[in-house]
Structure formats: C-alpha cells, structure tokens
Amino acid sequence: MNTKFETLKADVQQIIDLIAAKNDREANNKLLEVSEKLDEMIDFAEEDEEVREITRYQVLLNQLHVKINGEEPVDGE
Questions:
Q1: Mean pLDDT of 44-58
Q2: What domain of life (predicted)?
C-alpha cells in the first residue's frame, strides 16, 4: 500500500511544481492522469484506511483543480 501512495505523493508534488512554474496546461494534464489513477485505485481498494487515504488525495486534487482553473467545481456536473 505504501508504494502506491508514495507514487501518488510524488505525482501531486509534480502538479504543485507545475502550478508554481505557471505551467497550467501541463499541471492540468498531470492532474487528470492522477485523478484517473485514483479512480482506479478506489475501485480496487480493500481496506477502509486505503479508501480514506484515496479520498484525501481526491480532495487535494479538487483543490488543485480550482487553483489551476480558477473555478469552483460544481457537484453533479
């Protein structure tokens, strides 16, 4: 389990670095890639702790999406 989350942590850091470099297009592309990984991970999660950790990353990605795109995500859209 730790290896998966270490990779996610590095991917999220890369998104943050791209935002800091004002490379929003690449940051958004990386965000979409990581978001797909999280969706896949949650489908195969077996432990509650794993689901909680994935959910934390999903919340963080939502916040980064807002930072990149300057808009609030709307639930259900």
A1: 94
A2: Bacteria
